């Protein structure tokens, strides 16, 4: 029996039948300015139809109070310019672990030296993930609810479909539990929300960002709930090997594209 929760909602529709909705993925500006520019009606090409799965890796421990202190330490930004950034698109203030190369499709930022000093085990963990290049790597904690959206710019479709599901995330929370998850996946602008289950023995998961959107019903302070988000180009062979291990171990937690009705 699948462990994800499904919630149906009633959306307000325009005269043409499209939903009245907000667009939070506007970086760069006008990236997907309207319903027609979304990919939610495209065919999903993800590996074995997987949309979400926990990842078969041990739990990565992080002190969220330490993350809070780092992101609010003015000295850190002085010593390592570009470490923090106030995102105006819903993510709130973020803490970069690598130099941000988000707008460079094949960019690969250098690690900030503070990571080796403050949390070298996080660097070691990330380095073992199946990435060829990582153009964005940060701690985030959206302070408010976030509507259905994509994290990747539209030009990400150059490489996203063939490596999907490819949005690796690592999450920590003091204020939520797996049975009452606020993170959701959707393929119809939130009319049907799927709340995936993240088992307690891991906090790493991966989901699609090429067709399916995602969002959250509530926001939190970064020392209560936060996650590491990663954007980059994957080694597809290694990635799919890890996917196969993960869906075997967590078979009842996997969300497939065919599950959407």
Question: Could you explain the architecture of this structure?
Answer:
This protein has one domain: Sandwich (Jelly Rolls). Helices cover 18% and strands 26% of the residues. It has six helices and 13 strands. The longest helix has 14 residues. It is globular, with a radius of gyration of 18 Å. It starts with a strand and ends in a 5-residue tail after the last strand. The mean pLDDT is 93.
How many structurally independent domains?
Answer: 1
- By DSSP, the count of extended strands is 13
Helical segment count: 6
Q: Which residues form runs of ≥5 with pLDDT under 50?
A: none
Strand arrangement, major sheet: 3-4-5-12-7-10-2-13
The CATH class designation is Mainly Beta
CATH fold assignment: Jelly Rolls
Strand content: 25-35%
How far apart lie the N and C ends? Answer: 17 Å
Give Rg in angstroms. 18 Å
- Percent range of helical residues: 10-25%
On the 0 to 100 scale, the average pLDDT is: 93
Strand count, sense and barrel status of the largest sheet are: 8 strands, antiparallel
User: Which structural category fits the helices and strands?
Assistant: alpha+beta
Please identify, by name, the CATH architecture. Sandwich
Tell me the overall shape.
Answer: globular
Run of helices and strands = EEHHEEHHEEHEEEEEEHE
């Amino acid at each position: 029996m699948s462990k994800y929760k499904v919630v149906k909602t009633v959306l307000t529709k325009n005269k043409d039948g499209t939903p009245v909705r907000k667009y939070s993925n506007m970086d760069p500006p006008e990236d997907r300015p309207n319903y027609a520019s979304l990919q939610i009606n495209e065919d999903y090409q993800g590996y074995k139809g997987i949309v979400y799965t926990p990842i078969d890796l041990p739990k990565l421990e992080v002190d969220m109070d330490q993350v809070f202190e780092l992101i609010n330490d003015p000295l850190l930004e002085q010593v390592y310019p570009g470490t923090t950034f106030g995102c105006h698109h819903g993510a709130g203030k973020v803490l970069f672990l690598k130099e941000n190369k988000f707008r460079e499709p094949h960019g690969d930022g250098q690690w900030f030296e503070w990571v080796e000093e403050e949390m070298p085990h996080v660097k070691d963990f990330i380095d073992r993930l199946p990435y060829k290049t990582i153009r964005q790597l940060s701690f985030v904690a959206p302070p408010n609810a976030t509507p259905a959206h994509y994290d990747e710019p539209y030009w990400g479709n150059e490489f996203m479909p063939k490596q999907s599901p490819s949005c690796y995330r690592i999450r920590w929370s003091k204020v939520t539990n797996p049975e009452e998850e606020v993170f959701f996946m959707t393929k119809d602008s939130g009319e049907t929300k799927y709340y995936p289950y993240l088992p307690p023995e891991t906090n790493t998961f991966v989901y699609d960002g090429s067709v399916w959107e995602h969002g959250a019903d509530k926001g939190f302070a970064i020392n209560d709930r936060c996650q590491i988000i990663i954007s980059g180009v994957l080694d597809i062979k290694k990635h799919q090997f890890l996917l196969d291990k993960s869906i075997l171990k967590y078979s009842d937690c996997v969300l497939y594209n065919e599950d959407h009705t």
